[in-house]
Amino acid sequence: MQIYLDSCATTAPRMEVINLMQEILQRGWGNPSSLHRWGERATLALEKARWQVASFVNAPSPDSIIFTSGGTEADNLAVFGITSQYATPQHIIISAVEHSAIALPAQMLEDKGWQVTRLPVNRKGRVNPQDLAQAIQDNTVLVSIIYGQSEVGTIQPIKELATIAKNHGVLFHTDAVQVAGRLTIDVEDLGVDLLSLSAHKYYGIQGAGALYIRAGVKLEPSGGGGGQEKGIRSGTQALGAIASMGLASHLAQQELESENLRLRELRDYLFELLSPCPYLTVTGDLLHRLPHHASFLLNHDSEQLTGRKMVRELNFAGIGISAGSACNSGKSQPSNTLVAMGYSKDEAVKGIRISLDRHTTKEDIQWTAMVIEQVIQRII
User: Fold this and answer.
1) How far is CA 93 from CA 80, 110, 216, 218, 324, in A?
2) Do 121 and 97 form a contact (C-beta atoms < 8 A)?
3) Considering 25, 286, 327, 380, which one is annotated as catalytic?
4) In this structure, what CATH number is given to the domain that contains residue 351?
5) How far is it, in rounded angstroms, from Cα 75 to Cα 282?
6) Does the annotation count 327 as an active-site position?
7) The pTM of the whole model exceeds 0.90
């Protein structure tokens, strides 16, 4: 039996998406910048995808969508696209539980003299909006707070945080990579200025992402080139991956309500099955949580019982889970997210994440819960 429960790392592309990718590669492979019929076909596919992604996040215009290679580039483009406009270092605000695609650029800016405030979170991983209001300074130029935290599943109060930033005249960005396809995203209602997406988190192809940019917000180009993507992100677009992202966005939007409910029920069923286990403690916010996300701390003092050990043992049993973020789960250092939430460094190597997808069944949840308990008993 093979059970994949690591959709926060990546999802299997939908067959409709694979078919479109194949069609683009075989018959729609023109360069969108070309003027002949091959280029025209490519342009139609590109702009259809732009329209689909814009609709997915309720952007008022497709022109507000800039395609990237993924969520990391979209995050970097947001941070550096704003900050590189300033000749002297200013001030930015992030949370203490950002993905490395935001945390590391912030560190790079700090190394160059920028002031970076990292807002603390509570034991559940939530930012207090009052902390943001108090942290904003006269020279604050950007606030970037993750929407749905990948390691512990906590959802931040983005609308409230964005309103605070707006009231102070500060631009607001959110990394919505984990939220897309799981919760409705409405950039108009949220009031954000910038928002990052990644196709492969909701059954698209790896290698495509997007950055929503509110009209009137200026970004410094990421580099020089042919002027594609309104000159902000030059380079011939990865048409197959982008067209597939458009289709994945359209399909996710159609199924969002029913799939959200189904995943919540399965996630809560997993929590219920594992609740009697004395060696598992739920991490993150149970109320404000991604619908497909379950995370736990292994609360036994055995040095053998770590997140990485559990990942390996479940892999031997044919079950794929994660020890924290996929970008860091191969490393042995404590989770920065768990440390920021108040866990000790010894505890912060004992986190595991289980993330469900459209293929997950009730039987998968039952089998996984049983195997987890058996593995823990064997290790301790």
Assistant:
1) 13, 11, 21, 19, 23
2) yes
3) 327
4) 3.90.1150.10
5) 29
6) yes
7) yes
